[in-house]
Structures are given as C-alpha cells and as structure tokens.
Amino acid sequence: MRACDFAEHYYAHFILFGSAIQAVHFRRMLLYFFEQIQPIFAIQFYNLANLLIIDTALEEAIVALGKDGKIVAELTNKETHSHASFIQVAIANVLAEQQMTISALDAIAVTLGPGSYTGLRVGLATAKGIAYSIQKPLIGLSTLGALATRAIQLAPNAFEPPFQVFAMIDARRMEVFGAIYDPSCNPILQEQAIVLDQAKWNSLIHQPTLCIGNGLAKTKDFTAPHPVSYLEGHYTSQVLLNMAVTKMNAAQFENIAYVDPNYLKEVYILPSK
Fold first, then answer.
1. Which of 44, 56, 134, 200 is most buried, judged by most C-beta within 10 A?
2. Could you read off the pLDDT of 135-170 as tens digits, one per residue?
3. How do residues 189-237 score in pLDDT, each as one tens digit?
4. Residue 271 — left, alpha, or beta (φ > 0 → left; ψ -120 to 50 → alpha)?
5. Where are the beta strands (DSSP E) in 155-273?
6. What is this structure's pTM?
7. 3-state class percentages of the chain: helix first, strand second, coil last, to nearest 5
8. End of a domain among 195, 216, 231?
9. What are phi and psi of 153, to 5 degrees?
10. Does any domain span residue 203?
11. Domain assignment of residue 7, given as a range
C-alpha cells in the first residue's frame, strides 16, 4: 500500500469531525508522516502481498501464488511444448485453490529470460495482459539470477570466500547464456551469450566456482585453473517469490508497454514461403 493510500484513509475519517482548513493541514501532515515511515515498513507491507509467479522460460514451467512471503499454491509442467496451453489453466487453478480472484493480486512476477524464445513470449504476454487488466505492477525476474540464488542455497559452504557462481543455460551447439555472480548474487559478469572452448573457460574460471544450469554438460570435458563444483538442480518457486518481493520493496517494476523478453541474442524470423 502506498503512503498516499494510508493518508487518504485517515483523512477521510478526520473530515467528519474537523473544519475544512484543519482537514487540509491534517492531510499534509499525514502524507509527510507516511512517506517517511513507508521505507522502514516496506518489507512488512510487501511480504503480505499476493503475488502471482509465472515462469515459462525453461523446460519446467511454474505457476505459483505467493502470500505472506510464502508459496501457498503451485503447479508445474515439464512438457516444454505445452507451456502455452498449461499456463492459463494453471493460473485459474492456483487462484481457485486459495479462493482468490485475479483482482486480489497485488503484483505479477514473470521470468524475462534468458531462455526459450517461445516460452519467454508466452509467459510475458500472459503476465502483461493480467497486469494491464487489473492495473497492478509487473515485476521482471532473471532466470540466471534465480539459478545463482539457488546454487548458493544448495551449496553455501562449497568453497571459502572468495568464490563465484556461474549460472548457464543451454543455447545450443557450444553456446550458453551465462552470467557470473559473487556469493551475494551480485553480478560479476553480466548476462551474455558465451561460446565455450577451453581458452574461454580458463578466462572465466579465475577463482573457485559453483556452476549450475542446463548448460553444464558443455563444460564437463574442460580442465579448470581453479576448483569447480557442478550443481544439479533448478530454481524453485520460492526463489522466484523472494526475488519478486525484493524488487517490489525497491519499487523496481517493468513498463508494461515496453518490456520485452531478454533473449540475449538477435532473433531472426524467416519469411513464410
């Protein structure tokens, strides 16, 4: 809830009992007061928010509902080519499970990529449509950032600091979509398409490294100048929810009209014959 919403709520009660001039001054005082305290209590406010999580970027699609900072309903789909038909039914089902209408959502969070071209478009189009129709914020999430966060959860003591986390997603042939993070999941190497060979691998592994993602198979034959730990696993809906709450607290929302999937590579569409 915004500061002005709190102020208007109490202002409406005050004008029943005071003069017009007193009410105006009281309203100004309330606005100032709530603007000052809102950053302090933002986490408490947004942890209580109802968040819809949509992820169709990779092989496993996730539709989940977060409430009070926890996942309360979730459906997944591992049939990559059926994400489009899965997502609408899944959204209706997780809302019905919690007896919640779509208008009760406080924000919609969606993975922007990198990932599958079709999957990203399906997820983002759905999320944008919902956010626009109910006039609620849209939050964009990084698949690589989610993988890095999950790696830290899975192996927090794999290495003594300093170490790094290399999240990578298969981009076909010897290419991956990758990014490197520090133990706090701050980016060291920004998200990019990387063509892997031994020389490139050596340049990236400049300290002990946790590696995670479905691009791992492409690196198994490389020798590394520093210790490398390979982690199997995928990020969870709770990881996505935590990332969404953090962004919501920081008011980091997407522009619904202009946000696009993060493909990381040029997309070429051949004309139909």
1. 56
2. 999 999 999 999 999 999 999 999 988 999 999 999
3. 999 999 999 999 999 999 999 999 999 999 989 999 999 999 988 999 9
4. beta
5. 164-170, 175-181, 187-195, 209-212, 228-231
6. 0.81
7. 40, 25, 35
8. 231
9. -65, -40
10. yes
11. 3-47
